[in-house]
Amino acid sequence: MTDTVRLGIIGLGAQGGMYADLIAAGRVPGIALGAICDIDPAKAVSAGERFAGIPFFDDYVALLDSGTVDAIVTTVPHYLHPEMGIAAIERGIHALVEKPAGVYSKQVAELNAVAAAHPDVVFALMFNQRANPLYVRLKEIIDAGEIGEILRSNWIITTWWRPQGYYDQSDWRATWGGEGGGVLVNQAPHQLDLWQWLCGVPRSVYAKAAFGFRRDIVVEDEVTALVDYGNGATGVFVTATHDLVGTDRLEILGTAGKIVVEGSKVATVTRLSRPERDLSAEMSMADVMKLFMGQGDTSSLYTQETIEFPSAWGTQHADVLANFAAAVLDGAPLIASGAEGIRGVRLANAIHLSSWTGREVPIDFDDDEFLAELNVRIGAEGKYAQRV
Asked: Start and end of every GFO/IDH/MocA-like oxidoreductase domain (predicted)?
């Protein structure tokens, strides 16, 4: 076993280029650039200038069969993630798949099944927000029961304004057949993953999505989803791409406290001195009136902590890449196991399916029903082959 993983980057766009730059700059221990692949001939010239001596391929299968790489990362359109992941894993090549793991649950389930059949091959997801020290700390607080059982969560995440020109720059963008959806599959996968990672996987979803609401596109640019966890707890997720100013606010209310995150940067953690129902039962109306009038002493009721971590650009991506290398070389636990990627995909699919059908959808919905509905929309576009 060597002490370096030779990584093949499939897709030298903005994301793939960033990973290549991080590795070339020595910011990712345990990884070296093994090869680069892109179907655009201009990228061959660019790669030769930026990464001299690194083999370049215009066919990802040729890269996989070249013997130049031990692992790959897929920075390509969403539909291709499972296909490329499967091709790598079946060849014994470790796979780090970009978010989302795929567009629809059926194809991601196939990827997971192949990975399960090859347990010696490392399969990971590029959920770099799981490496964000803020969210790592919040997960520790929640898992330790410091805010009690979760009762409700709300996430408003509308900080990715996209003008019409963004959608017009590529024919495949914001299409069902080319991209697989809008804000849910392009901008929000990290937040959908973090939401279920922190708060748990919901039992069902009821959603309203608007398709081409404020942009000339066919996919969703506005979403409001209500989820039910089956124990009385609920959650709301709101996202859009037409809010010029944008909001990023996450609230998680528990039986013994509350977490509020602003801008994915600063968290306020409130810890109650006793469970809220106990405080309610013990408090006299005189005490309540003092609180309402701002005269009560809250120090006996709760404490508050502000949590903030500096996070330099690219650090979290580099951390996931380094963790992936450590898993390949030393068997280190993964920050985001590939098998977990289906959770966010099923959540996005359930939101779409609920919006399309107008009904509440269980998180274990019928994969074939979703695919049939997706294919109806792909067929209506008349530009892409339907999916299987």
From this structure: 135-259
